[in-house]
Amino acid sequence: MSAFCRRDGVLHAESVALSELAADFGTPCWVYSRQALERALDEFQQELRGLDALVCYAVKANSNLAVLDLLARRGAGFDIVSGGELKRVLAAGADPGRIVFSGVGKTAAEMELALTTGILCFNVESAAELERLNDVAAKLGTRAPISLRVNPDVDAGTHPYISTGLKENKFGVAYDEARALYRQAAALGNVEITGIDCHIGSQLLDPAPFAEALDKLLLLVDQLATDGIVLHHIDLGGGLGIRYRDDDASTTVAAYLQPLLARLAGRPLRILLEPGRRLVGNAGVLLTRVEYLKPGEVKNFAIVDAAMNDLARPALYGSWHEIVPVVTRPGATRRWEIVGPVCESGDFLGHDRALALAGGDLLAILSAGAYGMVMSSNYNTRPRAAEVLVDGAQAHLVRRRETVDELLALEQRLPC
Ligand SMILES: *Cc1c(COP(=O)(O)O)cnc(C)c1O
Predict the structure, then answer these.
(1) Rounded to two decimals, what is the model's pTM?
(2) What is the chain's mean pLDDT, rounded?
(3) What is the dihedral of CA 200, 201, 206, 208, to 10 degrees?
């Protein structure tokens, strides 16, 4: 049973009515389900039972401390992409030995912080980064554990902005150059080669490109072994998609992992995974209230109190999120453009949705747990929305709503 379901016509998060949360915490408001988060992680961990494997949650998908805390308590590691995310996961109680550090632009200061923290691995994305990391580790008198993020040049068939495994992308080391760069790394005094990694894209619903990427990586693993470079782990990145609409092809975690685990069987390689969206995407909704209805000749607009500054995905990628009433209302439906108050025509949350609506109604924007709050901004001087985590019949405010005064506090007028 989904953690978000309807009882007596009212949409609930676990045992709490979303209408109650709107009354208590205001709108717009992000609502997460503890049960949904834990179940999503459990799905991975069940498939990996008995194997030497670590699920490193990709923090950038949803970095709320309470979310990180829940996942850490259940044994997850973390994939971070900045020094800020490192501080976040440590604040949430993460074990440094379960943190991997990805990203094409790691600064020397971020490397230093991660080295002194003692993270599991740096996923190195270029020759220049490798050199810098070696220098920073030398300065600290230590050795940096590394894997190279190899770009396997497979077409993941996803949105161009979230496809990362093609030659033309900025990510990773080109497949044909990886072997030589490993040899170079082996000659450096302050890095220690521990693994290999890739991440080919996001919101992938077809398991085939993952297997294709793994085959290419394993070929490289074997070539490196003949060079005397023995790897201890293989990190397959994240990217497994979720269902945003009913007709999305859905891939189970098992269907995604089984072909990969079959290829890895018998190899003495620890398996790392970096799922982000799959762990949190369906565990959150964005709760919003209709401010005004503006029916028109060509289009009907429902202006709601959430906007592109809250949930950027529709404006940024043309993403589709299901939008449902919190309390079902009898009466005829009309087709509505669900839009926010931001002064941009791109400020929409959904196009052409058949809904029976009245001013003041509450709507839930579903599957908003990943790349939602983390991508929000203060555009139009809109304070960021509150985040609430529901656990059974209890609702915990896990980030309070920002105030306008807090936004202004960082700024100053000119002295004269
Ligand atoms: C974004 C990212 C992930 C997570 O991607 P999802 O599609 O959310 O699973 C994992 N690894 C790296 C390196 C990333 O940049």
Answers:
(1) 0.96
(2) 95
(3) -10
